[in-house]
C-alpha cells in the first residue's frame, strides 16, 4: 500500500514538474501573439483577445535587425559546418590511412583547438580581424565558424575511419585509385551518416553562438541571429515585449524543427558526445 | 618525384591544422602575453608584470565574479545532473513517458540567449511578480535587480535549459545497462528506491562521469544567460568570470585585465578537470 502511495507521489511530482517545464514556452507563445497595447493591459497568463501574430511577425522580420540576422546565421551555419566537415574529413582520412609521421601528434594539434575556454580567443581574434579587415565581415565570421567546428568533426571522423577495414583501401589502390580518389569514391559515400549528424550538431552550435557574434561583428548586415536578438533585448524589454518574444520564437524555429524532426539523429549525436 | 609524393599526405591535414594554429593556438599564446600588459586594445602595450593578477585579490568586483562563478559551478553541477538522473529513472517505465521526455527535452532545442529572454520576461515585474500579486502575495523582490536573487534567478533559467539534455544522456545510458542486476534486485525484494541507489547509480557511473564532466566544464564558461538577463549587473553584482572578461575587454577596453581573467578561467577549468578526472579514475580503479 505505502509502495503504491509512494509511486503515485513520485509520478505526481513528475507531472507537476513537467507542467512547470512547459509553462514558460506556453507563456511566450501567448504573449508573442498579443498586440503591444493588449500586452500592456492584460496579465501574462491571459489569452489574447486580439491575435496579433501576423503583425508581430511582420514587425520582427521587417522592422528589426532580426530578419537579416536570421539569413546571416543560415549562411554561417551551412558554410561553417559544411567546410569544417570537409576539411576535417580530409585530415581524418590522411591521419588514419596515409603515411604521415607523428599522425597522433597532428591529431592532438588540431584537437587542442577545443581545449581552452573560448574566452582565450576573443581578444586576439578581435585584434587579428581588425588588422586585416575581417572584423565585421561575413567572410571573417564564416572563417571563424569553420575553424571552431573542425576539432570536434575531426575527432568523430577519425574514430569512424579507424574502423574502416584496411583490405578495402588496399583493394581500391590495387584497382588504380589515387589517394584522393580513394577518399572521394570510397570514404565519402560511406561517411554520409556521420556527416549528417555532425552537420546538425555544428549548425546548431553556430546558430546558437552569441559571444563570437558580439565580438567579431558590429553591423546588422553581418550580425548572426543570436547577437541581433541580444541587441534587441535592451530596446524591447519594456512594452515591446511581444515583438521580442516573437523574435525569440522565430529564432528558435530552425533548431526546434531540426530537433523534433530529426530526433533520432540528435540522439545519435548525443551518444557521440558521451563517447567523447 | 617520390620525395614530392611523400609530402602529399600532409597536404590533406594542412588546411585543418592551419585553421587551428592561426585562429586558436596563436590566440591562446597572445592572450597569455597580453595578460602581463596594460594593453587598451590600441596603441603600445606596456609590460606590467603580475599587476592584472594581483588585482584579483584586491578588487571586490573581481572577487564577487570569482565567488559567483563557484556558485554557478556548484549549482549547475548538482541540480541539472541530479534532476536529470532522477527524471530518467522515473520516466523509464512511467505512463506517457514519451510526452514527458519531449517536454523536458524541449529546452535543449532553445538557445541560451533565447532561454535568457524567456526567463528575463518571467522574472521581470510583469512576470512572476504580477502572478504573486494576483494570488495576494506581496512579497515583491525585483528578481533581476537584487543580489543574490539575480544570480539565483539566472541559475533557475540555466537549470530549465540543461536538465533535459542530461536526462536524455542518462536515458541512453539506462538503455545500455544489463537487465540481470535489476531482475536480481527484484527477486531479492528490493524497493525501487533501494534498487536506484544500489544498482542503477553504480551501473550508470560511466555515464554520470561524462555528464557531470560536461556540466562542470560548461558551467565555468556561463556567459549568454547572464549577458542577456542582467549584463552582470546591477553594479557588476552578478558577473561571472566569463562576463567579467567580456566587460573588461570589450566594454572598458582593459584588454590586459580581460586577458588575465581569461587565464584565470583557463587555469580553473584545467585544474578542476584534472582533479575531476584523477578522482574519477582513481575511484574506478578502487572499484
Give a verbal description of the structure.
- The complex is a heterodimer of chains A (276) and B (287).
- By secondary structure, chain A is an all-alpha fold.
- Chain A has 2 domains: 57 residues, no CATH class; 173 residues, MetI-like (MetI-like fold), CATH 1.10.3720.
- Chain A contains 14 helices and no strands.
- In chain A, helix 7 runs antiparallel to helix 10 and helix 10 packs across helix 14.
- The longest helix of chain A is centred in the N-terminal third of the chain and has 32 residues.
- Chain A starts with a helix and ends with a helix.
- The mean pLDDT of chain A is 86.
- In chain B, helix 1 crosses helix 13, helix 3 packs parallel to helix 7 and helix 4 packs across helix 7.
- The longest helix of chain B has 33 residues.
- At the A-B interface, helix 1, helix 4, helix 5, helix 6 and helix 7 of A face helix 1, helix 3, helix 4, helix 5 and helix 6 of B.
- Chain A: Keywords: Cell membrane, Membrane, Transmembrane, Transmembrane helix, Transport.
- Chain A: Belongs to the binding-protein-dependent transport system permease family.
- Chain A: It is a multi-pass membrane protein.
- Chain A: It comes from Paenibacillus cisolokensis.
Amino acid at each position: 500500500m505505502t509502495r503504491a502511495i509512494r509511486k503515485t507521489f513520485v509520478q505526481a511530482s513528475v507531472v507537476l514538474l513537467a507542467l512547470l517545464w512547459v509553462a514558460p514556452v506556453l507563456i511566450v507563445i501567448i504573449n508573442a501573439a498579443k498586440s503591444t497595447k493588449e500586452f500592456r493591459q492584460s496579465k501574462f497568463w491571459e489569452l489574447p483577445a486580439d491575435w496579433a501574430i501576423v503583425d508581430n511577425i511582420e514587425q520582427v522580420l521587417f522592422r528589426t535587425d532580426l530578419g537579416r540576422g536570421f539569413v546571416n546565421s543560415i549562411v554561417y551555419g551551412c558554410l561553417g559546418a559544411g567546410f569544417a566537415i570537409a576539411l576535417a574529413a580530409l585530415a581524418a582520412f590522411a591521419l588514419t590511412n596515409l603515411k604521415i609521421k607523428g599522425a597522433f601528434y597532428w591529431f592532438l594539434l588540431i584537437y587542442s583547438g577545443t581545449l581552452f575556454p573560448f574566452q582565450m580567443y576573443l581578444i586576439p581574434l578581435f585584434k587579428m580581424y581588425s588588422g586585416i579587415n575581417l572584423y565585421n565581415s561575413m567572410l571573417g565570421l564564416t572563417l571563424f565558424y569553420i575553424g571552431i567546428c573542425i576539432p570536434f568533426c575531426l575527432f568523430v571522423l577519425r574514430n569512424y575511419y579507424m574502423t574502416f577495414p584496411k583490405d578495402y583501401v588496399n583493394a581500391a589502390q590495387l584497382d588504380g585509385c589515387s589517394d584522393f580518389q580513394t577518399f572521394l569514391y570510397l570514404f565519402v559515400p560511406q561517411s554520409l551518416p556521420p556527416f549528417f549528424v555532425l552537420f546538425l550538431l555544428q549548425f546548431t552550435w553556430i546558430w546558437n553562438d552569441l559571444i563570437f557574434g558580439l565580438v567579431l561583428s558590429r553591423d546588422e548586415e553581418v550580425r548572426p541571429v543570436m547577437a541581433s536578438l541580444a541587441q534587441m533585448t535592451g530596446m524591447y524589454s519594456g512594452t515591446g515585449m511581444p515583438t521580442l518574444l516573437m523574435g525569440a520564437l522565430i529564432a528558435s524555429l530552425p533548431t526546434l524543427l531540426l530537433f523534433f524532426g530529426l530526433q533520432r539523429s540528435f540522439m545519435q549525436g548525443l551518444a557521440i558526445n558521451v563517447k567523447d | 618525384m617520390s620525395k614530392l609524393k611523400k609530402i602529399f599526405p600532409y597536404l590533406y591535414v594542412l588546411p585543418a591544422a592551419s585553421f587551428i594554429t592561426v585562429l586558436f593556438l596563436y590566440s591562446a599564446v597572445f592572450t597569455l602575453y597580453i595578460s602581463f600588459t596594460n594593453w587598451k586594445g590600441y596603441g603600445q602595450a606596456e609590460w606590467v608584470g603580475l599587476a592584472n593578477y594581483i588585482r584579483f585579490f584586491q578588487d571586490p568586483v573581481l572577487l564577487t565574479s570569482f565567488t559567483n562563478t563557484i556558485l554557478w559551478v556548484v549549482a549547475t553541477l548538482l541540480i541539472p545532473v541530479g534532476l536529470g538522473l532522477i527524471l530518467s529513472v522515473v520516466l523509464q517505465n512511467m505512463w506517457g513517458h514519451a510526452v514527458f521526455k519531449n517536454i523536458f527535452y524541449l529546452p535543449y532545442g532553445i538557445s541560451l540567449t533565447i532561454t535568457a529572454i524567456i526567463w528575463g520576461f518571467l522574472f521581470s515585474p510583469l512576470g512572476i511578480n504580477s502572478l504573486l500579486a494576483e494570488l495576494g502575495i506581496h512579497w515583491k523582490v525585483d528578481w533581476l535587480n537584487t543580489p543574490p536573487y539575480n544570480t539565483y534567478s539566472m541559475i533557475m533559467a540555466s537549470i530549465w535549459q540543461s536538465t533535459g539534455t542530461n536526462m536524455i544522456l542518462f536515458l541512453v545510458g539506462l538503455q545500455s545497462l544489463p537487465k540481470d542486476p535489476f531482475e536480481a534486485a527484484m527477486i531479492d525484494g528490493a524497493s525501487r528506491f533501494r534498487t536506484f541507489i544500489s544498482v542503477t547509480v553504480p551501473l550508470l557511473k560511466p555515464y554520470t562521469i561524462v555528464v557531470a564532466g560536461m556540466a562542470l566544464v560548461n558551467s565555468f564558461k556561463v556567459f549568454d544567460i547572464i549577458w542577456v538577463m542582467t549584463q552582470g549587473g546591477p553594479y557588476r553584482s552578478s558577473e561571472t568570470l566569463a562576463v567579467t572578461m567580456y566587460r573588461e575587454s570589450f566594454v572598458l577596453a582593459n584588454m590586459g585585465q580581460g586577458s588575465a581573467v581569461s587565464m584565470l578561467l583557463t587555469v580553473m577549468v584545467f585544474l578542476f578537470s584534472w582533479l575531476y578526472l584523477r578522482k574519477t579514475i582513481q575511484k574506478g580503479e578502487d572499484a
